[in-house]
Specification:
The complex is a heterodimer. Chain A folds into 2 domains: 112 residues, 3-Layer(aba) Sandwich (D-Maltodextrin-Binding Protein, domain 2); 125 residues, Periplasmic binding protein-like II (D-Maltodextrin-Binding Protein, domain 2, 3-Layer(aba) Sandwich). By secondary structure, chain A is an alpha/beta fold. Chain A is built from 11 helices and 12 strands. Chain B is mainly alpha-helical. Chain B folds into 2 domains: 38 residues; 224 residues, MetI-like fold. In chain B, 76% of the residues lie in helices and 1% in strands. Chain B is built from 10 helices and 2 strands; from the N terminus they run αββααααααααα. Chain B has a two-stranded antiparallel sheet. The longest helix of chain B has 36 residues. The chains are: A alpha/beta, B mainly alpha. At the A-B interface, helix 4 and strand 7 of A face strand 1, helix 4 and helix 9 of B. Chain B: Keywords: Cell membrane, Membrane, Phosphate transport, Transmembrane, Transmembrane helix, Transport. Chain B: It is a multi-pass membrane protein. Chain B: Its main location: membrane.
């Protein structure tokens, strides 16, 4: 117990040091949380999770009376749960439909832009595909890596469940509403997609650009590699906004949290996690 | 127990029993009520034939029914001989410290959370299966079936050893008097005498195999296509419910889940009836 407290003290000291010593301007972004107490429950889009977690960590380290909980589930879940009042903030990796906005009275906050990139295992020599090839792969028409200049191995498809905003954007913009083979493996989050492809030398999937790291290789689509820069410049076409939605106008702690996402610190977190900041 | 308290305790226990019966019946009623629109709209029977393509309005759960049956069946097929052998070693054939160690290990295994098996399976079994099979991602029926076999084995082993323990001493002494070897005793005395218990264990393990969600969700790949080979991914009914519930709350897709629930419920009921039937058979034995 005392051991843990000591660690906590050190962590606190470090946070205060970082906050006050290195970036005095940014430290003020957390100031609106002063004197606040309560809980902000967040769920939905799994692409958002790294940013939400980092924001929650910074807030809770400085103000222990505030509880920020972050859950996944996919964009569909985020929209439904916030609409039904189960959480304060429902994240979505796609714009909620007009029907959803009307039904639940949602207010949308788009705080970053993200791309959805096709990824393969780093051992895979195939790092470039055309849109037509991508469509054929996900429809199950191309079933072997050999046809694409890779090894003579069956292609293992990975896709996301129906609630995924990442899937919705990929389906609409990368494969132009083409079919996704029903023999594709289904994974439930961006993180799970990344680990599935990272562990499968013959796998192919798609993941939020913010989640791409050394464990997977991004595949260039029609010659454009999905990165923060190409998404920012607009050269990479499969992009989408990252939204945080609230039921009606946010108030109290939820309002402060949303404002924090748009503050320099919040936007810096988004950029650091691989997304394009909107400010 | 004083005479005054006795009727009250009886009533209390009766109340508790009635409560658990009511919960079970209500649950079935709940599923049927919510699944009823499917039957009246005539979509109920389409669900057992078509594919699962919610985008195109096709809500077939046949691939999931097949997936459940195949994964549970494979798990049983692998687990039954292993469990029987293990139980025989514990009860009959083992010498010295081996049966005691084995028994303790099996009891310990029953306490390991399913997710731990699933987690270990992803990192240990899945890559192995992928390499062995030479095709597919390793997230497939074979991996899920093998892992499920590990999961249900302790249930069966404990049931088997318990029923071996009920074999009357006198029968064993008679076998000894005839000069039977341990293996002969196993085959001619233990198994014939304990078979209702063995079947009980199998039925319960089958129930666990059909009802398991996590192994299938983590290991089987969850593809909605009708599985054609053991190295292909498949989705079970339970994993299907978990995946769709996570995504949805009110749509036709969501409604079809009640059909999945009803099927699982009926499966369990059938197994319980089977167990009871066997129990009744046993009592009628001379």
């Amino acid at each position: 117990m005392s051991q843990r407290n000591r660690w906590f003290d050190w962590a606190m000291a470090l946070v205060i040091l970082v906050a006050t010593g290195f970036s005095p301007a940014m430290a003020d972004d957390l100031a609106p949380f002063a004197g606040q107490a309560g809980r902000v429950a967040i769920s939905g889009g799994t692409a958002h999770i790294p940013v939400m977690k980092e924001a929650a960590k910074q807030i809770m380290q400085r103000y222990p009376d505030i509880q920020v909980t972050v859950a996944g589930g996919g964009s569909g879940v985020g929209i439904k749960q916030v609409g039904e009042g189960l959480v304060e903030i429902g994240n979505s990796g796609r714009k909620p439909t007009d029907e959803e906005i009307a039904k639940y009275g949602l207010t949308m906050f788009k705080w970053a832009v993200d791309g959805v990139g096709v990824v393969v295992n780093p051992k895979n020599p195939v790092t470039e595909l055309t849109k037509a090839q991508t469509k054929a792969i996900f429809a199950g028409q191309i079933g072997n890596w050999k046809a694409l200049g890779g090894p003579d191995k069956t292609i293992n498809l990975y896709t996301r469940d129906e609630a995924s905003g990442t899937r919705a954007v990929f389906w609409k913009k990368a494969i132009e509403k083409g079919a996704i083979s029903s023999s594709a493996n289904v994974v439930v989050s961006n993180g799970a997609m990344k680990s599935a492809v990272a562990g499968d030398p013959y796998g192919i999937g798609y993941v939020s650009v913010g989640h791409i790291d050394a464990s997977v290789t991004p595949v260039a689509l029609d010659g454009v590699t999905p990165t923060l820069e190409t998404v920012k410049s607009g050269a990479y076409p499969v992009s989408r906004g990252l939204y945080s939605n609230t039921k009606g106008e946010p108030t109290g702690l939820t309002r402060i949290f949303i404002d924090f996402l748009f503050s320099p610190t919040g936007q810096a977190i988004a950029a650091e996690k691989g997304f394009v900041a909107v400010k | 127990m004083s005479k005054i308290a006795e009727p009250w305790v009886r009533r209390l226990l009766g109340l508790m029993a009635a409560f658990s019966v009511a919960v079970t019946v209500l649950m079935f009623g709940f599923m049927v009520t919510l699944g009823l629109p499917l039957i009246t709209e005539g979509t109920f029977f389409n669900m057992f034939t078509g594919p699962w393509q919610p985008g195109q309005g096709a809500y077939g759960i046949a691939p999931m029914i097949v997936g459940t049956a195949v994964i549970a069946g494979l798990g049983m097929a692998v687990s039954f001989p292993v469990s029987l052998g293990c139980a025989a070693l514990i009860s009959v054939l083992g010498r010295g410290w081996l049966p005691i160690l084995l028994h303790r290990l099996v009891r310990f295994m029953t306490g390991i959370p399913t997710v731990v098996y699933g987690f270990a399976g992803i990192f240990l079994l899945v890559p192995l299966v992928r390499e062995w099979a030479g095709r597919g991602s390793g997230l497939c029926i074979l991996s899920a079936g093998l892992l499920l076999a590990v999961l249900i084995a302790p249930t069966m082993i404990l049931f088997f050893t318990d029923s071996f323990a009920t074999v009357p001493r006198s029968y064993l002494q008679a076998a000894d008097a005839l000069g039977a070897s341990p293996v002969q005793k196993l085959i001619h005395v233990f198994i014939p005498c304990a078979w209702p218990g063995l079947v009980n264990g199998v039925v319960l393990a089958m129930g666990r195999a059909v009802g398991d969600t996590l192994i299938a969700l983590m290991i089987a790949g969850n593809a909605t296509a009708m599985p054609g080979a053991l190295t292909e991914p498949a989705r079970t009914l339970t994993a299907h419910i978990a995946l769709v519930v996570a995504a949805d709350f009110d749509s036709l897709e969501f409604r079809t889940l009640f059909a999945c629930g009803i099927i699982l419920y009926l499966c369990t009921t059938l197994m319980v009836v089977l167990t009871r039937g066997i129990g009744a058979l046993r009592e009628r034995r001379p």
